[in-house]
Amino acid sequence: MTVTSLASLGRDLRQGLLALAMAFAAAFLPAQSRAAEIGLPNIVLVHGAFADGSSWSDVIPLLQAKGYHVTAVQIPLTSLADDVAATRRALERQTGDVLLVGHSWAGAVVTEAGNGPNVKGLVYLSALVPDAGGSVAELLQKRNSPMHGLTPDKNGFVWLDDPTAYAHVMAADVPPARVAQLAAIEKPIVASVFGDKVTDAAWTNRPSWYLVTEGDNALPTAAQTWLSQHIGATTKTIASSHMSMISHPDVVADFIAGAASKAGK
Fold this sequence. Notes:
- Helix content is 43%, strand content 15%.
- The protein has helices at 3-28, 30-38, 60-65, 80-92, 106-113, 136-142, 163-169, 176-185, 221-230, 244-247, 249-263; strands spanning 42-46, 69-73, 98-103, 119-125, 157-158, 189-190, 208-214, 234-239.
- The strands form 2 sheets. Strands 2-1-3-4-7-8 form a 6-stranded parallel β-sheet, with helices on both faces.
């Protein structure tokens, strides 16, 4: 083989390796690069009462496709302190800044846990948002939205495992088969947690976003609207049941991504 042919072979090999490297990068790096361009790289999702982390299963792949690293926390629903501790453990595992998202009861959880140093923004979905020193029970009483029908069992837990009741309270616009699944996997909540008080409200020193659900049987729309205005949140209103992440996952994912984009700038 001549020197010329060896040089040509070397050049072809280098070009082939370069093409392979570029193809690899195109296949595996665009999600990360998009996340870097559009804001906070990490999104941590916290479920509410009568649900678990799987309630985010329709939203998670949509956020991942946009380039975000997503974590769904499994909170025990046994006390505000326990739920905040579980959320903080998830926050500590993140590399980089975080957008923290809370649904329903988890509004109180992210209000406390959101004081973590890597949390740069808060998103509330049909969420309860107490002031510092306040509880969810006090908040609902003040907004003339007391909780009805939450009778604890002998162990102090409140359940919502009947599909008919679940559909009415939580998921009126979700197909019956999916409602049956949600009722089957719902996590009961200890009734006393609603009296636990927030000590330091993160929304007072971080930007916040609030998705109001109009036609919600779990938390009245009027109470949600008041809360969003009270905390000075950027607000969007949609017609949805309480489980908007299931009935409107595209809207919810876009709302969260929009907040991540703005909170990261």
